[in-house]
Amino acid sequence: MASKIIYFTVNGRPEQAEFPIDCPAQDVKDLFRAAAEAGPHDILKLYNTKGNIINISPQLAPNSPHSCYKLKVVAADCNSAELVDDLGFDLSSLEKRLQSLEKRILTEAAETPVIVYEMKRQVESFREKLESVEHLSWLGLFKNMSEGTHKPSPFYHKRTLRKAREECVHVREQFIQMSSLEVSEEVRQYLKKPTFDNWQWEDAEIMVLLQVMYTDLDFISTFNIELDVLQQFLYEVYRRYNNIPFHNFKHCFCVTQMMYGLIWLTDLRNKIDSIDLLIMLTSAVCHDLDHTGYNNAYQINARTELALRYNDISPLENHHCAVAFEILEKTECNIFRNLSMEQFKRIREGIIKCILATDMTRHIEILTKFKTILPVFDFSNKDHRDVLMMIMIKVSDISNEARPMDVAEPWLDCLLQEFFNQSDMEKLEGLPVTPFMDRDKVTKPSSQTGFIRFVLLPLFIELANLFPSLEQHIIDPVRKALDYYTEMGKAVEREKQNRVQSEKMIKPSTSGQPEGHPEPSRATKPL
Ligand code: BYE
Ligand code: ZN
To answer: How does DSSP classify residue 361?
Structure first.
């Protein structure tokens, strides 16, 4: 009996089929279906070398390996009830289960087990196969496809949320080695200035610099802190800042360094006692511990564990503070272990007050309090000092724009990156999207001009009212930043106008060109 051989490829893989010329059409179709490992609902398409679709039948024109046909599989609706029956599972619900599993692992465990990535990869590649026929959507095959499934998984951002153990161990070794070296007087002086550039320093070096701050404020001697305890404490702190774009260990350092700078610039050592200074510096060090990159609004809307635990009351700040005291519970990390119970109590109360004050929803409340006491401010009054300490950690926390432009601007990029990650997640989960975090609405100038005018300057000016010497160090650079972003905003507007103008001139009628959207100038493109 005569038979023919057909050469073809499936997913780039060469195959050849042999069948008798008089065999039933269905047998030929089944043969190709088997070659493509396709299911009964899948659609098979065979292309000749010209790219034309040809019929899969016994009449197929014989070819050679050089004139190979191409076989393609397109899948039916992957969520249809029929297919759910056939597959024995529902892909969407499988994905949802996997997503919630991954989320739990990401928030609870240090690292995501390899098996979860493997499962995710399999589910994703399976969906990809199923969805490779989007161009057939007019067939009505996709009516059940849910909105979110086409978007990239937001969990990619969180892959390395927690620090890897090996990385920590390495940084720790570097830190311990470096800490025995002398830090030059030049660096020690530079460390006291708001012009300090954090981007020049590695994490291990940053830990040494934090140690220098404790040393140069005489905390080591005053509070009898053992050096290895301080180092263990700083290491635990480093370990418990996550790998996220903004609220990471470098942010912890910047806030602490600004606080340190403010203490020196205001000559605070001659105005309040050192236990308050210790509270201020340590609060700064601990103030964002274990931040996951999602703000309180998200925590509350998504009903996260933190929101549940803290009844929606400053869930993040409560958590940062709780983690701080969790670290201090370990004797080998407890830098306060040689203090009296009385002193520890005072420090604990102070740190809690300071860290909880960093919740920006309390901004007006705290600033108003400070304004009220300013005319009669008295450094010997505990209530007054408490408000001052809260104001100083608030100033330090949001002080990036008080730094030189080339230090500050990358921080804004990091912040917007973190905000955008959150809004992407909110969109994916159907939660309310905070407008200032929406990548479709926010630009650097639009966010920063308002923030500087209505939040930064009013806050900084009040602190400078108490310490006039601060004006040149923190107010002047912030005004410069305001000018910079105002100019950037104008440039964006001009560019928009120009685009509209030139579009009118070049294309007086609609030309079928895609809509011109305001495009990537340095200003409109935040990242
Ligand atoms: C604040 C709250 C939480 C986290 F989008 C970070 F315009 C901040 F609102 N910080 N910290 C520094 C900032 C800055 N927020 C903004 N600018 C800063 O320089 C404004 C934001 C980009 C936005 Cl306030
Ligand atoms: Zn912070």
So the answer is: G
